[in-house]
């Protein structure tokens, strides 16, 4: 399967809150998620965090997805029910090896997310 297809499936599973299917696209060993204010080395920890965000998720809109080799880059709009904050624009880089996502690095305005969660972001070293 192509890198772009794997990442598109992962995004769709995340959008639809099918976290078991999303997890199946992640490596078991050597996984890493890096965001502006958090880091996860275990896919279950990252997906637990995403599951917690599902309560405020109105939609996850894929605006753009491109891939070259084992790298993919997506622009997403995380639309929320949390009206005081609104929506969060995400830029996400993926590294795919052997048909599994090994690394995810997300770029967004961390202050918006911290305010949305009352400053209680998970810290995983």
From TrEMBL:
This is Nuclear transport factor 2 family protein. It comes from Marinobacter qingdaonensis.
């Amino acid at each position: 399967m192509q890198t772009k297809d794997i990442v598109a499936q992962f995004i769709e599973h995340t959008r639809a809150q099918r976290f078991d299917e999303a997890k199946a696209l992640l490596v078991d060993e050597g996984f890493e998620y890096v965001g502006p204010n958090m880091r996860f080395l275990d896919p279950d920890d990252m997906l637990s965090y995403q599951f917690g965000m599902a309560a405020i998720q109105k939609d996850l809109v894929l605006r753009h997805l491109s891939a070259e080799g084992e790298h993919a880059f997506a622009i997403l709009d995380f639309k929320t029910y949390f009206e005081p904050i609104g929506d969060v624009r995400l830029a996400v880089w993926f590294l795919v090896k052997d048909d599994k996502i090994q690394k995810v690095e997300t770029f967004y305005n961390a202050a918006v997310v911290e305010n949305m969660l009352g400053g209680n972001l998970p810290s995983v070293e």
